[in-house]
Design a protein that fits this description.
Elements lengths: L1 E7 L3 E7 L3 H13 L3 E8 L6 E8 L4 H33 L1
Antiparallel strand pairs: 1-2, 2-4, 3-4
Helix pairs in contact: 1-2
Length: about 100
């Protein structure tokens, strides 16, 4: 994976991400949009044949970098809870089976 910051201002940031699955960006965008300090969060694909995306975050207040870190942390927590629940469901199935 490769990440480069393309543009950064006090209230916005655009970065390019290469070599990552689109679903990861969707989860991060979803978590960003739940943050009350975020005005806008979106990604766009550079080219249909490439796994290269541009991601933009604009905040109403606060740092876009801080908002992004909060969103990534929230995404990890969601994945962790989901993983544990799937593991428990599979374990129960094995015990009952």
């Amino acid at each position: 994976m490769n990440i480069d910051i393309v543009q950064r201002t006090e209230d916005s940031m655009e970065f390019m991400v290469e070599g990552i699955d689109l679903s990861v960006l969707r989860v991060i965008q979803h978590e960003l949009m739940k943050d009350g300090t975020v005005e806008f969060a979106a990604y766009r694909r550079h080219h249909p044949l490439e796994r290269k995306y541009f991601f933009t975050v604009k905040t109403k207040k606060g740092s876009p970098g801080d908002a992004l870190l909060r969103a990534i942390d929230a995404a990890y927590k969601v994945a962790d809870v989901m993983g544990k629940e799937i593991f428990d469901a599979l374990l129960n199935e094995v015990k009952e089976g």
